[in-house]
Amino acid sequence: MSAIIHARVVEHLQRLRLGFVAERLDAVLNEAATREPTYLDFLDQVLRQEIEAKQRKRVAMGVQIAHFPTVKTLDEFEFKFQPSIDQRLVRELATGRFISSAENVLIFGPPGVGKTHLAIALGRAAVETGHSVLFTSATALLAALAKAETEGQLADRLLFYSKPKLLVIDELGYLPFERRSAHLFFQLVARRYERGSLLITTNQLVTQWGAVFGDEVLAAAILDRLLHHSHTLIIQGDSYRLKQKRKAGLIPPMPHPQGALAGEPARADRRKH
Ligand code: ADP
Ligand code: MG
After folding, report:
1. Residue 59 is part of which domain span?
2. CA 169, 174, 179, 183: dihedral to nearest 10 degrees?
3. The whole model's pTM is what?
4. Which of 41, 63, 85 is where one domain is finished?
5. 72 and 194 housed in the same domain
6. What is the pLDDT of residues 209-261, one digit of tens each?
7. Domain co-membership, 23 together with 99
């Protein structure tokens, strides 16, 4: 008799898509027999296990879709090493609220200060808070858009990059854009404007974006849309990689700590615009 009920419970659980508990029903029942929780506690535990399993699965899938180049988390980030970073702002961004209101994030700084690390970590936090994310380098993004244009698939490709709630574009400005690429980038930014968030990391101050895009007017139009609803993080400091090498005695210590990125972006500040 109890075997029949057991089979029926498994079937109910499966029909309700409570797969985690369905697969572990015996273990769940054995534990309940040992611990003797109240009916309410038992129900609470079973449902919580299922919800946690579903969340883990959703995050794993979201992380896979996002195509992060490596695993980086905020917990691993040493804020004390980069005092120029507004830690409160980073923690606020990790709540994913900026994505719900389609705001952008710009991370400025010289090489090695943790821009990509923060971009991945914030991207992951966005997945955890239930948002769709796609991570790409600026170079890969532009190559994909240019290829799509040549093949007459630009509309599809722009749609592809417009869909995720958060699009992370890493390393903007390391290579200057060709004129055509700059126009394609503008189209993407214009399309996402007030609809989906962009998180961009760059080693170039906004005053240098004219040179990056090879066109002052176009750069101004791009910046206008990017900065309208945005948060900026300006990292000024020593490269973390160099710090590790210095620690190991591979290179001499710095005479005085100084970031390669002098001055602040002309139109960006730490507050929300
Ligand atoms: P950037 O993108 O600014 O050039 P990265 O994010 O690639 O720099 O950082 C270089 C390396 O140093 C990465 O392995 C990153 O995880 C690590 N790193 C940088 N800053 C920190 C930090 N403050 N705490 C922990 N690791 C850091
Ligand atoms: Mg980087």
Report:
1. 3-63
2. 10
3. 0.86
4. 63
5. yes
6. 999 999 999 999 999 999 999 999 999 988 887 777 777 777 666 554 444 44
7. no
